[in-house]
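Render this sequence as a predicted structure.
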Amino acid sequence: MLGAFTVQRSGDVVPPNNATVPGPPVRRRLRMLLGAAAGVLLLGLVPAVRHGAESALGAGGPRLTVATWNMCGVSAWGCGEYGGGEQKAGVLRSLAKEHGARVILVQEACRGDLDRARAGLGADWQLAFQPYEQADATGARTPVDCGGGRGEAGIGILAAAPLTDIAPVAAPQPEHGLRRGILCATATAAAATSGAGLRLCVAHLSLPPADRSDRAAELRDDQLSALIEAAGTDGSVFGGDFNSSPPGPHYKDAWIWPAAYFDTVQECAQRAPDQRSGFAPTHENGLKLDYLFTALPRHGCSLVDTGFSDHRAQLLSVAAAL
């Protein structure tokens, strides 16, 4: 077990969050004022992805938008300049109401922010959450707190449908240091290419070298393998913050990617079956770190600069429904 996880359904009591979060400094305010315009520009930079083979749903069949977003919510991790809980909850609501996301995979998320967003989205939305754990030298683990009264930090799945089969995924984690994790669930009301529901998995992979064990082992390769095995390649969408660049000739850690990635399943912005590089950056450092994979037919891929994180949100449209 990688750590405790919870699911919140409509009708659950939402804990109060009256903490006052200070506004961002002036240099961030300017960036936030440009956030909406930057998001629109990014949508134009990542064109819709279309394929010759149409699914059984046909070109006019149902489509589902899935988003992934690293919210940068932990104050101690240098995220204080990226806005507070209300702004981040507002972005989640915007991804759903303005950008059409029916599923949102989140990382570095504060439980209080997610509860606030879910309550504002309506009774159809559910939340599955798994907190990060900090392991000390003795092996004892404690949850990571976001600070500012916003609750535990972790990964989560927000979906406009009932979530079942919720479970953490066993994968190697640091013996000492931050244990991020993988969480999966099934949206039971989804109608993908079959009636089995849509399998959803969110992952936040270990960041080398800070999260390596005493043996300095690379963890991301095994974590990527565990993720795709848990998600499956039929009727699923999975992704998150992989803390990894796409495979390519100039990337020394390209070997960590299992062969099935970009082949058996395709990435949101993958334009051709043989594409492994040349993707638009998702992090403000100019790297692509955030991914969404599926074997379902893809109809579009876009990036949104929210102005309230160092990561852009990525949105994928697939042939499915909720």
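Summary. The longest helix spans residues 85-97. Confidence is low (pLDDT under 50) at residues 1-58, 190-194.
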